[in-house]
Amino acid sequence: MQKNKSFIHIYKTADQLNNDVANWIADQIASTLKKQDRFTIALSGGNTPEQLHKILAASPYKEQIEWSKLHIFWGDERDVPFDDERNNAKMAFDTLLNYVPVPKSQIHIMRTDIPPDQSATEYEKILHQYFGTNENVSNSFDLVLLGMGDDGHTLSLFPGTEIVHEEKAWAKAFFLQAQNMYRISITKSITNRSSRIAFLTTGKNKAAALEQVLEGNYNPDLYPAQVINPLNGELHWFVDKDAAVLLKSTPTT
User: Fold this and answer.
1) Element of type H or E holding 129
2) Integer angstrom CA distances of residue 55 from 12, 27, 61, 188, 219
3) Residue 224 in contact with residue 212, Cβ under 8 Å?
4) β-pairing verdict for 234-240 and 196-201
């Protein structure tokens, strides 16, 4: 099994980053679909991907991408109703999925109309249907899109939470005391089997955490994003210059 390949792409502006990432995603989809008949992608929540979604939902990508062959998943979800503005799936529909022809049967939201533990169990079953039931499965998603919080969290892997160290389950639900709500999340166990993982990180408020995640000592209890390390795929960090300001030596695109 080959070691993962890591890349850091730094942009002068967030707009430049989003346009380049949209083009990169379209290229990854096109090249993958030359070798197989589907492309599996896990979307992220938060505010960071909204502009990227809007770019992908417009020309030329609306026409260029073979949307009918995409299978859509989410990395994590807040246990709030679908019509709640905090719901990650709602954001993705509002900014992307309502505008492109992905078959509904290929869109797999994390349900919030059932107890969170049951939702995580159902989601894990769906993941196993797609990627197999053997714990040694080497490949999962074709692409996972991730964000990173200014506390170094990604997915719903928050500092000091047990899910950061989950080795077996592919999806888990837990109560996040700091937010007084349940969260549902895929884990590093399935994420790190992906062919490509891409972090989108922008803004000065992310600079300190980004420096620690990329250049600091390994301490995932403080900076959970450090556990994202694909076993045999590619890891890409797409960051703007504000987020990268504390990094020691990286080129600007």
Assistant:
1) helix 116-131
2) 18, 14, 8, 28, 35
3) no
4) parallel
Q: Compute the distance between CA of residue 144 and CA of residue 41 in angstroms, rounded to an integer.
A: 6
Q: Which structure tokens are listed for 230?
A: 């694909």
Q: Is 119:111 a contact under the CB 8 Å cutoff?
A: yes
Which among 188, 168, 202 has a CA at the least distance from the CA of 235?
188
Q: Residue 115: which H helix or E strand, with range?
A: none
Q: Which domains does the chain have, with CATH numbers?
A: 5-58+69-148+164-232 (3.40.50.1360)
pLDDT in tens, 26-68: 999 999 999 999 999 999 998 889 999 999 999 999 999 999 9
Opening angle at CA 176, ends 173 and 180, nearest 5: 120
Whole-number Å distance between alpha carbons of 158 and 177: 11
Which residues of the chain are under the pLDDT cut of 70? 1-4, 134-136, 249-253
* Distance from C-alpha of 107 to C-alpha of 82, rounded to nearest angstrom: 14
In angstroms, how far is the first alpha carbon of the chain from the final one? 31
**Cα–Cα distance between 74 and 155 in angstroms, integer?**
9
Q: What are the Cα distances from residue 9, in Å, to 55, 157, 213, 243?
A: 19, 24, 15, 11
| CB-CB contact of 124 with 118 (8 Å) | no
pTM: 0.96
- Cβ–Cβ < 8 Å for 253, 9: yes
